[in-house]
Amino acid sequence: MTSTPEGRLRLTLLGGFLGSGKTTWLRHQLHEKAFGRVHVIVNEAADVPVDDALLGAADHMTLLAGGCVCCKGQQDLLNVLLDLCDDRSGLADRSTRIENIVLETSGLADPAAILQLIQSHPILVRQIVVTQTIVIVDAVHAKAQLQQEALGRRQIEAADRLILTKTDSATAQDTAQLCASLEAIAPGAIQTAAIFGSPLVLQESAPDVLPFAMPDLSDSDMHPIIACQLNLGDKPDWTAFTVWLSALLHARGDQIVRVKGVVGTPAGRLLLQTVRRTVQSPEILPDTVTPVESDNTIAVIGRGFTQDQLSDSLAHFSA
Ligand SMILES: [Zn+2]
C-alpha cells in the first residue's frame, strides 16, 4: 500500500440540488473519457435507482441507493471506498489500476459532510485525495432553491467549481444575477456553464449586477425533506397516474421537490422526472437499458407529506 500523495486515488465529488442535471453532465463526461480509468459511485437517497440506468458508459460503477451518504448512508460509502482502495493496491499492473473516483451525490447531500467523512477516516485519508467538488446549478430553479433551502446554499458553499445548466431556458439578466449571487456565496469557485454536458461560454457579468436577496434560513424551522416510494403495480394506468401527478404538482408543487422513476407504458419504458412544478418531457429509455426491479416504482421527494398520504391519494385516483 502506498501513502504518498502521488499514489493516492483522486476523487471528484459531484453535487447539486435535486434535478439540477448531475447525471446528464456526468454521462457526457464519461462518454468523452474525461476522467480516464474511473470508478463511478452513484448515490441516491431514494430506494428507486434511476441514475445508474442512465450511466451506461461507465465500465466500473457502484450504486448506493436508499440512503444519502452524507448522513444515513455514511458506512455504505466507507465500505465501498475501502474496497476500491484494497482492490487497487492488490493489482500489480499499474496500467490497469483505476486513477479516479467520481462520486455523484444524492441531491440531498451536503458535499462538505462527505469531504469531512473521508478526510477524518484514518485509512482513507492516506489512500484517497478529494481533488475537486463540482456542484451543478440549475439556472432556472437555483434562485428559489437558494432563497428557500439552506441545503441549496450549503452545496454552493462547498464547491470548487460551479457548472450552470439550463442557461438556455433563463434570461441573460437572470443568469447574470444568479452568477453574482453564487459569487457572494462561494467567492472562490470557478463558474462555467454546460448544455447537456458540453461546455458553454458564460457571459462575463457586468460588475454592477447585484446578488438577489437571500433571507436567513435555518434548517430547524423547516420540515425535513423525505423520500417516499410509490409502487404503481405491474401494469400501471399511465393516464390515471399522469392525471394524479398533475393534480399533485398543482396543489403541492412547492412541497414536491422531485419526482423520479421509470414507468412501463405501451410506448416503452418512460423515464419520468419533475423538478418542482416542471415536468421534464418523458424520455423513452433505449432497449439496451435492461428493465430493473424498480420499474413502475416512483420516488417522490419533498416535505410536508407522509408516505401514507401519498399512497392513499394515488389509490383514490386509480380506483
Ligand atoms: Zn445526507
Secondary structure elements and their pairing?
Layout: E1 9-16, H1 22-31, E2 38-44, H2 51-54, E3 60-65, H3 74-90, E4 100-104, H4 111-119, H5 124-127, E5 128-138, H6 142-148, H7 150-157, E6 161-165, H8 172-185, E7 190-195, E8 198-200, E9 226-231, H9 238-252, E10 256-265, E11 268-275, E12 278-284, E13 297-302, H10 307-318
Parallel strand pairs: 1-4, 1-5, 2-3, 2-4, 5-6, 6-7
Antiparallel strand pairs: 7-8, 9-13, 10-11, 10-13, 11-12
Residues 68, 70-71, 108-109 line the site of zinc ion.
Q: CATH superfamily membership of the largest domain, which one?
A: P-loop containing nucleotide triphosphate hydrolases
Main pleated sheet: 8 strands, mixed
Element order: H for helix, E for strand: EHEHEHEHHEHHEHEEEHEEEEH
Q: Bound small molecules, which ones?
A: zinc ion
As for the number of domains, it is 2
CATH architecture of the largest domain: 3-Layer(aba) Sandwich
Q: What does the radius of gyration come to?
A: 20 Å
End-to-end separation in angstroms reads 60 Å
CATH-assigned fold name of the largest domain = Rossmann fold
Tally of separate helices: 10
